[in-house]
Structures are given as structure tokens and as C-alpha cells.
């Protein structure tokens, strides 16, 4: 059985980019019952959105004047898909980068102005 993090083309993660993560966390906790869990993902602390025991997204710490949700789509190869997106007229907002223990990701802006992140997750390692 595959999960969204294993299925090419599936939406697999959501992040809320905003300047006041604590306020956002409180709002969504009250509205939807989401919990949070802060972990170190190798590049500093990251607050996971928890729906019961399931990690479904995150509240990254960032300054932004335009709060927005950023959807992530699982792809077979971030680098290959970024090059294909570029050839199809997309601009690259964030070039491919690797996050230890997470995977490789990039953010593109499609020719219509839609923003989406692409991710290829690392294979889980057995402890």
C-alpha cells in the first residue's frame, strides 16, 4: 500500500508560511483540533502539524508579509521535474535542495503564477 509520500503526483504535505506561527497554531488548534510537535530536522527547529498521530504539515519559522499555504507534491525526481517545469515555462522560486532525513525539495511558480513545492522523500532508515 502506498502513501502520498510514496506516490508520484500526490499532494503529501502542507506548510503555512506566516510571520506569527504561534497565533496560527492556536487558531488551527481551536478550529480543527490540530496539535503540534517541534523537532530538529537538521536545519533548525521545525513545528509539525499533527492530526492525531499523523504528521500532515508544518508551521516553518519565517518572516513573510504575505501569509500563504504551500502545498507539496511528491515527485519521482525533484531535479528532473524542476528541469521539466522550467522547460514548460515555470520559474523556480527555490532551486532543489536537500534536507537531511526528509528529502529533496524545490518550489516552482507555474506559468499562471501558481506556487507549488515538489518533494522526493528520503527512504526511511531503520534505527
What can you see in these coordinates?
Strand 7 (103-109) and strand 8 (115-121) form a beta hairpin. The chain has two helices and eight strands. An eight-stranded mixed β-sheet has the order 2-3-4-1-5-8-7-6, with helices on one face. With 127 residues, it is of the alpha+beta class.
Short description:
17% of the residues lie in helices and 44% in strands. The chain has two helices and eight strands.
Which descriptors apply to this entry?
globular, 8-stranded mixed beta sheet, alpha+beta
Q: List SSEs in N-to-C order.
A: EHEEEEHEEE
Mean pLDDT over the full residue set: 92
Helix count, DSSP H or I runs of 4 or more residues: 2
Gyration radius over CA = 15 Å
Spatial arrangement of strands, main beta sheet: 2-3-4-1-5-8-7-6
State the low-pLDDT regions, or none.
none
Structural class: alpha+beta
* Percent helix: 10-25%
Q: Major sheet: size, sense and barrel closure?
A: 8 strands, mixed
Per DSSP E runs of 2 or more residues, the count of β-strands stands at 8
Distance between the termini: 22 Å
Strand content: 35-45%
User: Globular, elongated, flat, extended or rod-shaped: what is the shape?
Assistant: globular
